[in-house]
């Protein structure tokens, strides 16, 4: 004769079987921490020897059967079943029904979306202000930079002339290596010494 039925901490889902009421000698049932759903069968009131029933941490809904051995059970037997309406005798507040839970969930989503949207908007505004400030600073320096460049004359030298002035990039004219390659010395026709890479 089965007296103790423990199926806790499993991934059982679905409804609690009505046939449990045929196991009249059961004194302990533990179906906690599973994924059971639906209502608690009223036929379980027939279990006359039940001393401990643990249906906590499931997805049960509806009302807890009243009367029979259920009158002797504590609220701990039904914890974390958010759609389950607990008997007032057990001194546990009624759980929210689905529409109340959904409206609270929707409100939380709206608040989260507003917070994220506000943060993104703030970041975009700060970025645009930063770009605007940099442009203003950059545009105020440009006239001075242009004035300095007016006195500089650019010298255009062909690749063939560079080969000739560096003796075909010979080792004798090698100065060193830079981040973009080797550096060579060359002497132009007017006597000016140049470096080229």
UniProtKB/TrEMBL annotation:
Keyword Disulfide bond belongs to the record: no
Keywords, in A-Z order: Leucine-rich repeat, Membrane, Repeat, Transmembrane, Transmembrane helix
Pfam families (alphabetical): LRR_1 (PF00560)
One annotated Gene Ontology cellular component of this protein: membrane
Transmembrane stretches, start-end: 110-133
InterPro entries in UniProt: Kinase-like_dom_sf (IPR011009), Leu-rich_rpt (IPR001611), LRR_dom_sf (IPR032675), Plant_receptor-like_S/T_kinase (IPR051809)
Compartments where located: Membrane
Name this protein carries in UniProt: Protein kinase domain-containing protein
Organism: Nymphaea colorata
């Amino acid at each position: 004769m089965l007296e103790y039925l423990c199926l806790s901490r499993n991934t059982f889902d679905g409804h609690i079987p009505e046939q449990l009421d045929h196991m009249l000698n059961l004194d302990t049932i533990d179906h906690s921490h599973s994924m059971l759903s639906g209502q608690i069968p009223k036929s379980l009131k027939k279990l006359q020897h039940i001393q401990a029933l643990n249906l906590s941490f499931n997805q049960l809904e509806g009302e807890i059967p009243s009367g029979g051995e259920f009158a002797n059970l504590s609220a701990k037997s039904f914890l974390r079943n958010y759609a389950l309406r607990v008997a007032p005798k057990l001194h546990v507040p009624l759980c929210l029904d689905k529409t109340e839970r959904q409206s609270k969930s929707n409100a939380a989503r709206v608040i989260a979306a507003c917070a994220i949207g506000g943060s993104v908007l703030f970041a975009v505004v700060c970025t645009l202000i930063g770009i605007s400030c940099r442009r203003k600073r950059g545009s105020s320096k440009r006239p001075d930079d242009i004035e300095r460049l007016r006195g500089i004359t650019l010298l255009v030298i062909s690749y063939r002339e560079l080969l000739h002035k560096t003796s075909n990039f010979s080792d004798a004219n090698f100065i060193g290596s830079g981040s973009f390659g080797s550096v060579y010395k060359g002497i132009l026709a007017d006597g000016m010494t140049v470096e080229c890479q």
